[in-house]
Amino acid sequence: MNIVTLLPFIVLIGAMFLMTRSAKKKQQAAAQMRNEMQPGTGIRTIGGMYATVKEVHDEAVLLEVAPGVHAVYAKNSIGAVLADDEYNRIVHGTEDDLNEDAPVVPDDASSLTETDEPADASDDSPIDLGKKDVAAGADDAQPKKTDGESDAK
């Protein structure tokens, strides 16, 4: 056999090896993150729910979803363990790092229609969208051509 014929198979096997290796590393990192959870930390589940860890067991965790509301979840359902400041910013709406120099975006479109001129200076006259009077311009108008007529004489 020639090495050139085996080269595509070798490249394919190498690519498969690299892909499975990176996926395995991601799984190990996620498992390590779940095993290092401690009571009191804020988490996000894979479903997008934010909660606080109350108890950690072998295969399950007890989460406090709201004050006084507890739920048992599997450890595999924990998507991310959040830092305390990030958890408080998301759940409680604490914005410690607000930049007061940043522009404020309004909730409505009023800023798009505001002008510098006073309100009474604007042109609020009604716009006529109807047809103009045909009789007024009838003297200057040329007769319309119908099908089959031409300008040739």
Topology:
Layout lengths: L2 H33 L6 E4 L4 E7 L3 E7 L2 E6 L3 E5 L1 H8 L18 H4 L40
Antiparallel strand pairs: 1-2, 1-5, 2-3, 3-4
Structure report:
It is a single chain. The protein has helices at residues 3-35, 84-91, 110-113, and strands at 42-45, 50-56, 60-66, 69-74, 78-82. It has 153 residues and is α+β, with helices and mostly antiparallel strands. It has a five-stranded antiparallel β-sheet. It is flat, with a radius of gyration of 36 Å.
Helices and strands, in N-to-C order? HEEEEEHH
Number of helices: 3
Beta content = 15-25%
Cα end-to-end separation: 88 Å
pLDDT < 50 runs, ≥5 residues: none
Q: What attributes characterize this protein structure?
A:
alpha+beta; 5-stranded antiparallel sheet; 3 helices; 29% helix
Give a brief rundown of this model.
The protein is α+β, with helices and mostly antiparallel strands.
